[in-house]
Amino acid sequence: MAAPGAGTLGSGLSEPGAVAGDASLNGLEQDDSMTIAAAHLSDTKPRVLVIDDSKDVHRLLKARLRNEQLDLSHAESGAAGLEAVQQEAPAIVLLDLDMPGMDGFEVLRRLKDDAATIHLPVIVLSGLHSSQDKVTAFDLGAVDYITKPFDLTELRVRVRSALRMHGLLQMLAQRAQLDGLTGLWNRAYFDQRWGEEVASCQRHDRPLSLAFFDADHFKSLNDTYGHPAGDQVLIGIAQIFQRVLRQTDIACRYGGEEFAIIMPETEPDEAVKVCERVRDTLENVCWERHPERGVTCSIGLCGSNGSVSVDAAAWLQATDEQLYKAKQGGRNRIAVHQFGGPGKPKLKKAG
Amino acid sequence: MPGKPDSSRTLRSAYADDPEMTELLEVFCEEMPLRAAALESAARERTWEELQRLAHQLKGAGAGYGFDQLSEVAGELERRVKALRDDECPLESVCADVEALADLCRRVRA
Fold it and tell me: Is residue B8 one of the residues assigned to a domain?
C-alpha cells in the first residue's frame, strides 16, 4: 500500500503543482504531497551518459561538468554505450563520432531505430569538423553537435539547453494526458491505458478491476453554490484519490463529474475495499464553501480474478451498468460485478 | 634513452592556470611517459592498429587538455598510419612521426 501523501497522483505520476486551486477540505490534512513530489524531482540529478573511446575525454568531462548537478556515467565503445543506454536509461547522451569498431554514426542510427530510445536526446561530440559530418549527425537525429576540443562554457550551456528542451518536451507530452482541473490523467490517457491493461491481464491471466466514480447530485451542487464550488469538489475528490488509492492504481477524470480508476493486479474483493475507503473519506469531508452540505459518490465496479475474456469496451459498458445500479439503489454506495466468478464459466466476448 | 628534457623545451597546457584543470592535468602528464613508450613499442612491433588507436586517443586528449601541438602531431600520425595500412604511405614517415610525438609526450608538464 502506498502511504497517503506519498506524492503520487494515483497514476504513478509526480507532477509538481498538477492539482490546481485550493480545495480547503476540512477533515483532510492540507495537501503537502505535491511539495514533496517537487522536492523529490529536483533532488534527482539527470543522468548523462558519455560514449567515447578515450578515458581522457571521460576524465575531462567529469571535471568540466563537475558543478552541473549531473549524474555522469561512461561507456568506452559504441557497443558498451548501447548496452549502457538500456541499463541506465540516461536523460541525455554525449556521443563521440570517431570510435574504433562501431562508430558514433552507427550508435546514433541504432538509438533512433529503437522505439524505446528514439526520443533520447543525443549530443554529438566530435573532432571531425566537416560540415558533411554535422549534416549526417543531425539527419540521423542528433539534437546538437559540439566540436572537440571543448570550449568549456559552450559545452556546459549546450548540455544545459538540451536537458531543458528534453524536460519541456516530456512535460508537454505529459500535460497532453493530464486533466487541467484535477491533475489526474485525462480521458485520452484512460482510453489508451485501459486497452493496454485489459490486453495485459488477459495475456497473463492476471486480476484486474475497473471502477467508475460519479459525484452524486453534482448538478444541483453547481446550481446552488456556483461552478467554482463544483470545481473545488472535483479537485477535492481528486485529492482523496491521491491520498487513499494505492501507488499502482490509475486515477483518471473520465469527464464531467465522473472518474475512472483502473486497478491492475487487483481482484474485485480487494478493489471494493479500496473504493469503499474513498467513498467513506469523501462522505466525511466538511467543505469550506458549503459546510452544511456534504458530497457523496456512487461507484460501479467490474473486476476479474483472471482467466476471463471480455473486451475493453464490453468491460467499460458493464462497469457503467453497475454505476447505474448504484445510483438506482439510492446513491452513496457501490455496485459490483465479478466476471467469471468462482466456478462460473468464462464470459465470452460481447457481440 | 634521452635524459631529462631541457626545461626550455617544456610543453605547457593552455589550461595551466585553470584551477578546475590542475588535478586532471597532473594525472594526464604523469601518464605521458608511459604513452610515449607505448607509441614506440607499437611502432617497433609494427602493431599498426594499436599505433593508430594510441594516436587517435592522443589527438583527442591533447586538444582536450590544452596541448594543441601534441594533438596536431598525433592527428598527423593517425592519418599516416591509416595510409600506411592502406599501402599509401612510406614506413619512414610514420617512424619520424612516432619519434616526434613521443618527444612531445615526454615534454608535457602540468
Answer: no
Residue range of the domain that includes B26: 18-109
What lies within 8 Å, CB to CB, of A98 at 6+ separation is A104, A126, A127, A128, B56, B60
Domain membership flag for residue B2: no
SS3 category, A2: coil
Q: Domain for residue B5, yes or no?
A: no
Residue A290: alpha-carbon gap to chain centroid? 33
**How many domains, in total, are found in chain B?**
1
pLDDT grade for A320, boundaries at 50, 70 and 90? very high
Antiparallel, parallel or unpaired: β B108-109 and B11-12: parallel
Does B90 reside within a domain? yes
Active site residue A106: no
Interface test with B, best of A54, A55, A103, A128 (most B CBs within 10 A): A54
pTM of the predicted model over 0.80: no
pLDDT digits (tens, 9 = 90+) for B96-107: 899 999 999 999
> Which candidate in B56, B67, B108 is best for mutational testing of the A interface (most A CBs within 10 A)?
B56
CATH of the domain at B85: 1.20.120.160
Asked if residue A199 lies in contact with residue A221, where contact means CB atoms within 8 angstroms, the answer is no
**Interface pTM (ipTM) of the complex?**
0.77
